[in-house]
Specification:
By secondary structure, the protein is an all-alpha fold. Helix content is about 80%, strand content about 0%. Helix 3 packs antiparallel against helix 4.
Length: about 100
């Protein structure tokens, strides 16, 4: 088995330790986010919808519109869309909420 030079070992150790610290920070942030959703639920907000709003806010308006268009096509093809105007109003309402 090949061994690393001392300088390479040191670099590797530093990288691994940095990754471990970042993983711990990520774990703490995940717990903080969970706590915020719990707080929102306690205030009467629908957490499932809140998660969707957060996800939508990460996207551009163009991306959201493209997704809505594809969703409309799929729902129509499955016979689940009775009124396209109703779906458009719902999408517009979600976008305006941002």
């Amino acid at each position: 088995m090949t061994t690393l030079q001392a300088s390479a070992q040191k670099q590797l150790r530093q990288i691994v330790e940095q990754i471990e610290r970042l993983e711990e920070e990520k774990k703490a942030l995940s717990a903080d986010i969970r706590d915020k959703y719990t707080e929102a639920k306690g205030l009467g907000f629908d957490v499932k919808v809140l998660r969707q709003v957060v996800r939508l806010r990460k996207k551009s308006q163009t991306e959201r519109q493209e997704e809505e268009s594809v969703l409309e096509v799929y729902l129509h093809a499955l016979g689940m869309l009775t009124d396209t105007a109703d779906l458009t109003r719902q999408a517009d309402h979600m976008i305006a909420a941002e």
